[in-house]
Amino acid sequence: MLAIIVTGHGEFARGILQSAEMIFGKAPNVTAVTLGVDESVEELVSHYRLAISRLAPITELLFLVDLWGGSPFNAASQLIAAHPDQYGLVAGLNLPMLIEALALQQQSLAEVIPQLERTARGSIRHLDLPTNTGDDETL
Fold it and tell me: How far from each other are the two terminal CA atoms of the chain, in whole angstroms?
């Protein structure tokens, strides 16, 4: 089973995981790791290591990160560099992506990552209301 660390700046990771669990339900082998205002990348790496030890045994681990190039991304990248065949990362975390990741935990990292990229792209849409035709049944 794929283990997942949801991570990001401030309380974003805990909040989005809580929201996903309201919709999907509680998932095993998933945890949120947050970056506090005064914390360094090195401290976050330590938080990740502790989270990984609590999720163990791990065959594969996916980091879902809020922002490409941010401190949570940089800290996770250090760990991925040491385990490139077991660990992966997807940045740009949003709620549909997280729910999809929870639903795909039985699949391999190689299968899950491309699916999450498609899910994230498909979740960005705008509401295009039809012009008012005078008909009250437009919605």
Answer: 41
pTM over 0.85: yes
Task: Label residue 122 exposed, middle or buried (CB < 10 Å: 0-12, 13-18, 19+).
Answer: exposed
Question: What is residue 47's predicted lDDT score, i.e. its pLDDT?
Answer: 98
10 Å Cβ neighbour count for 48? 22
108 vs 79: CA distance, rounded Å: 19
97 neighbors 71 (Cβ within 8 angstroms): no
Report which of 40, 17, 15 is spatially closest to residue 28, judged by C-alpha positions. Answer: 17
DSSP-assigned states of every residue in 79-125: HHHH-TTTEEEEES--HHHHHHHHHTTTS-HHHHHHHHHHHHHHT--
Tokens for 102, please give them.
Answer: 């929870």
Q: Are 4 and 30 in contact (CB under 8 A)?
A: yes
pLDDT tens per residue, range 101-127: 999 999 999 999 999 999 999 988 899
Is the previous residue joined to 57 through a cis bond, with omega within 30 degrees of 0?
Answer: yes
Closest CA to 48 of 24, 83, 98, 93: 83
